[in-house]
UniProtKB/TrEMBL annotation:
UniProt keyword list: Oxidoreductase
SUPFAM superfamilies according to UniProt: Glyceraldehyde-3-phosphate dehydrogenase-like, C-terminal domain (SSF55347), NAD(P)-binding Rossmann-fold domains (SSF51735)
Top-rank taxon, per record: Eukaryota
Enzymatic reactions: D-xylose + NADP(+) = D-xylono-1,5-lactone + NADPH + H(+)
KW Oxidoreductase (keyword) present: yes
UniProt name for this protein: D-xylose 1-dehydrogenase (NADP(+), D-xylono-1,5-lactone-forming)
Family, as annotated: Belongs to the Gfo/Idh/MocA family.
E.C. number(s) listed in UniProt: 1.1.1.179
All copies of domain GFO/IDH/MocA-like oxidoreductase, residue ranges: 155-272
Amino acid sequence: MGSTDTRLPTLRWGIIGTGLISSWFTKDITTPRKSTSATHSIQAIGSSSLEKGNEFLTTHLPALFPKPTVYPDYKGVYADPAVDIVYIGTPHGLHKQNCLDAIAHGKHVLCEKAFTLNASEAREVLAAAKAKGVFIMEAMWTRFHPLTSSLRQALYTDRVIGDVRRTFCDFGLDKDIASLPADSRLKDPRMGAGSLLDIGIYALTWGLLTLDSEVNERPRVSATQTLRDGIDVASSFILHYPTTGRQGILTSTTEARTPGVFMRIEGSEGYITVEGPAASAPRAFTVYPKIGSASTSAEQEGKRYEFEPEGMGFYFEADAVAGSISRGEKENETMSHGETVRVLEILDVIRAQGGARFPQEEEA
């Protein structure tokens, strides 16, 4: 599958789901860039109706040529011989079946986060992909942003703030869940509704990225959730690494929007703040010296590092996927299968302690 061109790996995409995340992803990977490490084309779009699919194409990809085939269902995309890989941008509760269907047709898969509702579902999907011999990855695009690797280097190679001690990270959006219709994915528990799987997964990811080190240690988790009609509107959880003593204080909410600076990482010799339009889309981090006893944070001068992508930044993960597939890999080390399962296992613990459950889990 894919291009035989050895200069740039090429992928032909089929898109499942025509919501906001799919509009961002498709526009980003098809917009011309000054430099690129892969070539992408949209071959097919699958929606719940032909009208909705055509509206998505007209609204979000009006200049795209040649035009992709629009199907009034998902099956057409799975069966389309021109499609190498299926991007799944449907609600969380549909991910498991969408992945299994795409895999059954021999397609590679890039599935939006959260990969599935829980770790058990993820293991089932990953086992199916392994048996079929196809590539599959969770679309946690933030892990592929250049800022992320640069931040890890600053923390653990350059040690710009000494020994890392704590991370505070919040991802909040003001969604007014109560006013949404009952069938909204943000309100329907069968779709994985709640702040945790939608945005709390980013706070957790930043906690792991900034606190994990050379010590291979599973953090202890302490969590609480605020539930309204069974849906978590706020989740707060602490990661504690017993060996190093590091802590992550991580939160998500759908009742208030987080300011531009969404994370602070504290070390023995200073601290770092990370900012962006959302915790999923980092744009800069600033390194500050340790606050002295006679100083205030306002008096400290920091060194700022900016990372502004050409578009939104979804193409970083798409290019990485294209590279992996061109090399015959079945997973990508930046978002490995093991890491996907680990994250979901922690999310499962958070929900077990906080009380949020999905109907599918009660039925299992």
